[in-house]
Amino acid sequence: MNSPMLQHIPLESAYLCQDCDCVGNSATHCPACASTALMNLAAVLNRNEVEADITMPGFTYAASRAASALAA
Protein backbone atom coordinates (compact mmCIF):
# COMPACT_ATOMS: atom_id res chain seq x y z
CA MET A 1 0.00 0.00 0.00
CA ASN A 2 1.45 3.34 -1.07
CA SER A 3 0.81 6.45 0.97
CA PRO A 4 0.59 9.82 -0.79
CA MET A 5 3.39 12.32 -0.27
CA LEU A 6 2.28 15.25 1.81
CA GLN A 7 3.34 18.70 0.76
CA HIS A 8 3.27 21.70 3.06
CA ILE A 9 2.66 25.11 1.52
CA PRO A 10 3.12 28.22 3.68
CA LEU A 11 -0.05 30.32 3.81
CA GLU A 12 1.74 33.32 2.32
CA SER A 13 2.45 31.37 -0.89
CA ALA A 14 -0.75 29.30 -1.10
CA TYR A 15 -3.09 30.03 -4.00
CA LEU A 16 -6.54 28.55 -4.68
CA CYS A 17 -7.50 27.96 -8.30
CA GLN A 18 -10.99 29.30 -8.86
CA ASP A 19 -11.49 27.00 -11.85
CA CYS A 20 -10.63 23.57 -10.38
CA ASP A 21 -10.38 24.24 -6.58
CA CYS A 22 -6.77 23.02 -6.44
CA VAL A 23 -4.31 24.61 -3.98
CA GLY A 24 -0.79 25.30 -5.15
CA ASN A 25 2.13 27.62 -4.55
CA SER A 26 2.48 29.22 -7.97
CA ALA A 27 1.27 32.81 -8.28
CA THR A 28 1.10 32.64 -12.06
CA HIS A 29 -0.83 29.46 -12.93
CA CYS A 30 -2.60 26.46 -11.35
CA PRO A 31 -0.41 23.34 -11.07
CA ALA A 32 -3.39 21.12 -11.97
CA CYS A 33 -5.18 22.89 -14.83
CA ALA A 34 -2.82 25.78 -15.78
CA SER A 35 -5.55 28.38 -15.14
CA THR A 36 -4.56 31.90 -14.18
CA ALA A 37 -7.69 32.49 -12.05
CA LEU A 38 -5.91 32.27 -8.69
CA MET A 39 -6.76 33.68 -5.27
CA ASN A 40 -4.09 34.22 -2.61
CA LEU A 41 -5.28 32.37 0.50
CA ALA A 42 -3.32 34.52 2.94
CA ALA A 43 -5.48 37.50 1.96
CA VAL A 44 -8.56 35.56 3.04
CA LEU A 45 -7.37 33.36 5.92
CA ASN A 46 -4.49 35.19 7.61
CA ARG A 47 -6.07 37.54 10.14
CA ASN A 48 -4.53 39.32 13.08
CA GLU A 49 -6.29 40.21 16.35
CA VAL A 50 -7.23 43.74 15.27
CA GLU A 51 -9.09 42.46 12.21
CA ALA A 52 -10.74 39.71 14.31
CA ASP A 53 -12.15 42.36 16.69
CA ILE A 54 -13.57 44.31 13.75
CA THR A 55 -15.08 41.33 11.95
CA MET A 56 -16.50 39.56 15.02
CA PRO A 57 -17.79 42.24 17.42
CA GLY A 58 -20.35 39.89 19.00
CA PHE A 59 -17.66 37.38 19.89
CA THR A 60 -15.41 40.11 21.34
CA TYR A 61 -18.30 41.50 23.41
CA ALA A 62 -19.23 38.06 24.76
CA ALA A 63 -15.60 37.29 25.64
CA SER A 64 -15.19 40.60 27.50
CA ARG A 65 -18.43 39.97 29.47
CA ALA A 66 -17.26 36.48 30.40
CA ALA A 67 -13.91 37.86 31.58
CA SER A 68 -15.70 40.52 33.67
CA ALA A 69 -17.95 37.89 35.26
CA LEU A 70 -14.96 35.75 36.20
CA ALA A 71 -13.14 38.74 37.72
CA ALA A 72 -16.13 39.64 39.93
Q: What's this model, at a glance?
A:
The protein is of the alpha+beta class. The protein has helices spanning 42-45, 49-55, 57-71, and strands spanning 15-17, 23-24, 38-40.
Give the SSE string. Answer: EEEHHH
Give a count of the beta strands, DSSP E runs of length 2 or more.
Answer: 3
DSSP strand (E) fraction? 5-15%
Shape summary = flat
Helix content: 25-40%
Strands ordered across the widest β-sheet: 2-1-3
Description:
- There is one protein chain.
- The protein has 72 residues and is α+β, with helices and mostly antiparallel strands.
- It has one domain (11-71).
- The chain has helices at residues 42-45, 49-55, 57-71; strands at residues 15-17, 23-24, 38-40.
- A three-stranded antiparallel sheet has the order 2-1-3.
- The longest helix is centred in the last third of the chain and has 15 residues, at 57-71.
- The protein is flat.
- 6% of the residues are buried.
- The model has no long low-confidence stretch (mean pLDDT 76).
